[in-house]
Amino acid sequence: KKTIKKDGEPLRNPPNTLPLVGNGIQFLQSRWNLLEWFDRCQRQFGHETLALTVPTLPPGALIQDPKNLEFVFKHEGLFTKGMFVKRRSWDLFGNGIINADGDFWKLQRKAGLSFLTTANLRVLTDVALPQYLSESITELKASTGGQTVDLQHIFHEITTKLMGKMAYNMEMHASDTFSQSFDYASGCTAKRFQNPLWPLTELIFGHQFRKSVSIVKSFGRNIVTSAVHDREKVSSSDTSSSGDAESKLDQISGSLIQSLLDAIGDEQMVADAALTYLSAGRDTTGQALTWTFYLLMKHPLVVTKIREEVQHVLPGTEKEDIDPIKFTPVTMPYTMAVFYEVLRLYPPIPFEIRQCQEDAALPDGTFLPKSSVLVWCLWAMQRSKLTWGDDADEFNPSRFLDQNGKLISRSASEFPVFYGGARTCLGRKMAEAIAVQVIPTMAWLFEFQPAYEGERKSQTSLTLPMEGGLPVFVRENGNRTGEKS
Ligand code: HEM
């Protein structure tokens, strides 16, 4: 029987590997402890590839070297999600793009590309986002009387409304039953990757999970029904429009679901695809904004610099004059650097798993037999001093800027937050467009103070939601000069 080897020898084991159970007990820990354990692996072993063993599961390897990751990105067909990932995430995502390979993946990717066009992103930045941002600002202004506000909810609401309207032509909210059921189901799906006995555990404790999945699936069917209804309405009505901002948004609303219906046809599969896009688009971005403000509250000098950038782009701006449309990745390099630095330390997708479809050899000489499982932990890799220097643990947005203040781009293998190669994230530009408007607008208008003590952690999920949200006190920022108050 072939085994994972390097230079004819088994790989070294990570810390806390036990006889018989290998890393099985380790994986049963909470998400937060697991992230810390992966971080210990990179601190102790650098870029070395390590063995991961869990009884009953295929042999695994933990890769930590960007060179190995580059190889994985270049050989998408060799390292796919495979049955290991699909079996665990099937209930939630079915045939959705995150789970799909081959032609069905291509169809969904093509539909996504026709949704995320430059013209549609322009409607997002010029019409939809300013509108939803302004609704959140109104809510925050109404909360300056000393009550606590959950910023994670505020950001989740912005991204939910955006995806709901633009992708599906539906009004969606972060507090919808669907959203809560999805969060619960996502947590249970993540636990399946940590617990080899999940089929048994769910047989006994899986009632709530099954209920949540059923609510999520029924919501997916609603999205499709509503899209089919929209189609019938459009074909029987006059489609001429005035060309004003509101009608531009109406024209493109639902373009993702319509492209999916065109490309796939089968309504159950379209529902799976729609739910997957919804999760990919709104959760990641909402969470990234939440961690951004968590870090900004700890780093007031960074807030000052963001405000200076606002002043530079909008000179003479007064209290209520802020025009977020002017904030773009080109005009706001410092804000972009802040966003990238947050993504480095708090990657919304903190782990990745792939399965070898054939025997393979990594650039560092590791041999992987067919069906082996390959794991990398972005959370840990992006804290590596070998890749990011001695200050890798510090929040330092300047590492993404050159001497002239221009953004430095890092290779996908060193900075894999948006993945790399053929399956690189389709929504990167959308996420950046949202971040570059939301961060400076909120930082300019408000002062946030923590309404919690200690550190915030992530709850177990497929992405990186903050456990318990981000409760803050809000007050309006009286000082618009960009200087520290
Ligand atoms: C900060 C925000 C975001 C981050 C960090 C992020 C990260 C990622 C990562 C790591 C993957 C690869 C996942 C995997 O296959 O295991 C991915 C895929 C994907 N992302 Fe994003 N994403 C973000 C925002 C968005 C947005 C706004 C959209 C818009 C709809 C989006 C759409 C997608 C899609 C469709 C895929 C699947 C691509 C494929 O398999 O070909 N993402 N993203």
Description:
By secondary structure, the protein is α+β, with helices and mostly antiparallel strands. It has two domains: 1-93 and 348-381, Uridine Diphospho-n-acetylenolpyruvylglucosamine Reductase, domain 2 (2-Layer Sandwich); 94-347 and 382-476, Cytochrome p450, CATH 1.10.630.10. Helices cover 52% and strands 8% of the residues. It contains 18 helices and eleven strands. It has helices at 24-27, 31-45, 66-74, 82-93, 102-115, 118-141, 151-168, 177-194, 198-205, 207-235, 245-252, 255-264, 267-298, 300-313, 333-345, 378-381, 385-388, 428-445; strands at residues 5-6, 50-52, 60-62, 79-80, 148-150, 351-356, 360-361, 366-368, 373-377, 446-450, 471-476. The strands form three sheets. Strands 2-3-9-6-4 form a five-stranded mixed sheet, with helices on both faces. A three-stranded antiparallel sheet has the order 1-8-7, with no helix packed on it. Strand 2 (50-52) and strand 3 (60-62) form a beta hairpin. It binds protoporphyrin IX containing FE (HEM). Protoporphyrin IX containing FE is lined by residues 97-98, 109, 112, 277, 280-281, 284-285, 288, 343, 348-349, 352, 417-419, 423, 425-427, 430-431. This is Cytochrome P450 86B1. One of its GO terms (molecular function) is heme binding. It comes from Podospora australis. Keywords: Heme, Iron, Metal-binding, Oxidoreductase, Signal.
What is the molecular shape? globular
Largest sheet, described in full?
Answer: 5 strands, mixed
Determine the N-to-C terminus distance: 67 Å
Helix content class: 40-55%
CATH level-3 fold name of the largest domain: Cytochrome p450
Integer-rounded radius of gyration: 23 Å
The CATH superfamily of the largest domain bears the name: Cytochrome P450
List the uncertain runs.
481-485
Q: List the secondary-structure elements in sequence, H or E.
A: EHHEEHEHHHEHHHHHHHHHEEEEHHHEE
Strand % is 5-15%
| CATH architecture group name of the largest domain | Orthogonal Bundle
In total, the number of strands is: 11
CATH class of the largest domain: Mainly Alpha
Total helical segments = 18
Strand order of the largest sheet: 2-3-9-6-4
Averaging pLDDT over every residue, what do you get? 92
Q: What is the domain total for the residues? A: 2
Pairing-aware structural class of the strands and helices? alpha+beta
Ligand species = protoporphyrin IX containing FE
